[in-house]
Design brief:
This protein is of the alpha/beta class. It has 7 helices and 11 strands. The longest helix has 18 residues. The relative contact order is 0.11.
Length: about 280
């Protein structure tokens, strides 16, 4: 009996046997991806990789390592893992916004100085720019009032190789501070002394009021103690100097970095640091 052999075998065999296998696609290696080794049929998630191997861990916790450039299978087919270079770590910044110098030791103090009016000014500058000042070897001292500036500078003896930067409160046209600044510049010269200032009545106002939960600082009438008036407006005790000191520490504690200060303060301090640390200073 003859048989009809028209349907014997698979008509696509010749096509399949002649087709080249599809090369594995590339897949970015990532921790936790599930892969199968086609040789051992070990199936697990990627838990680690070295320069030579990748390690998979199955659902029971068993681990097995394979050559880094092996072909694996994932849910979509054959893959070769591609290992991307890690993104460079962003350099850490100090509270002033400058790049942090890791493990920096304080530099020997320069001959120059920065003078500020009072203790609160010095504490604010130290909190935000302390790292920069130690790296650059700049010492900050306070005057206990702008009226002492001429006396302090005469004793210090500024010179082009021994520069002095001065930060004054309320340095606005026509103020007592502006007259002091003009006299100092004339006496010691612009290459030895730089006097700058912010427009605020007190350095407290250099802190952005939003850090205290306010849109603006309270306005204190002339003839009234400014700091006592501020404390009263903020609902803080203000009976004596100890209360004022505690109020300032509370305000200072709200400062995290340069972004919590007004631009007029930031620019002036950095101008002074640049002046004192310039070549020859």
């Amino acid at each position: 009996m003859d048989f009809d052999e028209r349907y014997d075998g698979d008509p696509l065999i010749a096509f399949r046997e002649g087709r080249k296998p599809r090369p594995p696609r590339e897949a970015t290696a990532r921790r936790g991806m599930w892969l199968e080794d086609p040789v051992t049929e070990f199936y697990g998630r990627l838990v680690s990789a070295t320069r030579e191997t990748v390690t998979l861990q199955d659902a029971d916790g068993a681990r097995r390592s394979f050559p880094r450039h092996s072909t694996f299978f994932d849910d979509e087919g054959a893959v070769r893992l591609v290992f991307r270079a890690p993104e460079p770590k962003a350099r850490a910044r100090s509270t002033s916004g400058s790049f942090l110098v890791e493990d920096a030791t304080a530099r020997v103090a320069r001959s120059g100085r920065i003078f500020v009016e009072g203790r609160h000014d010095a504490e604010l500058v130290e909190k935000v720019w302390g790292h920069d000042l130690r790296v650059e070897g700049v010492v900050v001292e306070y005057l206990e009032g702008a009226d002492r500036l001429d006396e302090v500078l005469a004793e210090f003896g500024p010179a082009p190789a021994r520069r002095v930067g001065v930060l004054l409160d309320h340095l606005v046209r026509g103020s007592k501070e502006s007259r002091i600044a003009d006299a100092i510049a004339e006496r010691f010269g612009a290459d030895a002394v730089l006097v700058v200032g912010h427009p605020y009545v007190d350095v407290w106002q250099a802190v952005r009021p939003q850090r205290l939960g306010r849109e603006s600082w309270p306005v204190i009438p002339k003839g009234q103690s400014w700091k006592h008036g501020i404390c009263a407006a903020l609902g803080l005790p203000h009976e004596d100097q100890a209360d004022i000191a505690r109020a300032w520490q509370r305000i200072l504690g709200r400062v995290r970095d340069w972004r919590d200060l007004e631009p007029a303060m930031i620019g002036r301090v950095e101008e002074l640091i640049d002046f004192v640390t310039a070549p020859g200073g």
